[in-house]
Amino acid sequence: MEVDYNSMDLPINTIHDQDSDTDVEGAEVKDMRLEADAIVNDVLFAVTNMFVSKNLPCAVDMAYINVEIKEGTRYCLELTDAGLRVVGFAFDQVDPGCNSQYHETVYSLLDSLSPAYREAFGNALLRRLEALNRDAQS
């Protein structure tokens, strides 16, 4: 059986937006540069210094974050879909031999590195709960 068709009648979906937040299968794709900025803004209050590296390559699928914990130790962190992990022990330093474990959240990673982070986070949480309690009593 012959089927005649006009190529103009076929659906055309050849345009792919490179800046799209979805991949080919329609799953959402995270931009790790944006994720890294959000992480820094979220926990900056509980560390001495933290910023997204401007010297190491950042891409849609990977970013590097430099952090100095309250105890004075500096780390270079790698952020990927697998999570966060320590990759170096100085700002902007990636040690290929560093095989640290991935953490799902920055909270888990910092909790494992810094007792002072745990204390700062706990104190911030306590202040927030006290403020909510005062608001509820007003």
Explain the overall architecture:
The chain has helices spanning 32-43, 106-113, 115-137; strands spanning 49-52, 63-68, 74-80, 83-88. The chain has 138 residues and is an alpha+beta fold. It has one domain (26-137): 2-Layer Sandwich (copper amine oxidase-like fold). Strands 1-2-3-4 form a four-stranded antiparallel β-sheet, covered by helices on one side. β2 (63-68) and β3 (74-80) form a beta hairpin. The protein is elongated. Residues 33-132 form the GSKIP domain. InterPro entries: GSKIP, GSKIP_dom, GSKIP_dom_sf. This is GSKIP domain-containing protein. Belongs to the GSKIP family.
CATH superfamily, please?
Hypothetical protein (hspc210)
- N-to-C SSE string, H for helix and E for strand: HEEEEHH
The CATH top-level class label: Alpha Beta
Integer average pLDDT: 83
| Shape descriptor | elongated
Number of DSSP helical runs: 3
What is the count of structural domains? 1
Helix percentage range: 25-40%
Number of strands: 4
CATH architectural label: 2-Layer Sandwich
pLDDT under 50 segments (min length 5)? 1-24
Tell me about the biggest sheet?
Answer: 4 strands, antiparallel
GO cellular component, one term: cytoplasm
Family: Belongs to the GSKIP family.
Domain GSKIP: 33-132
Pfam families: GSKIP_dom
